[in-house]
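Q: Hi! First time doing this. I have a protein sequence and I read that you can turn it into a structure. Is that right? Here it is:
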Amino acid sequence: MEKSLIEVSRIHKLEGDSKTKAFVDVSLGGIVVKGLKVIDGSNGLFVGMPRHQGKDGKWYDTVYPSTKEIKEELSSLVLAAYQE
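A: Yes, that's right. Below is the predicted 3D structure, encoded as structure tokens:
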């Protein structure tokens, strides 16, 4: 099987009752993306992308997967690392 270009480089698990369970940094072929989050949503755990708040007060993703396959691979790698 081909080695993935996506790797979890750092994970910081949070204690307490917050819906945010961890902050995660991933390496994408030599580029590090900081600020992904593991969130406990109403349908279970999911991976949230880094976001910034616009001048209109709304939140916008600053990084997003370009295909469904990349999103699924990223989510499965991050959630597996969180559950270790």
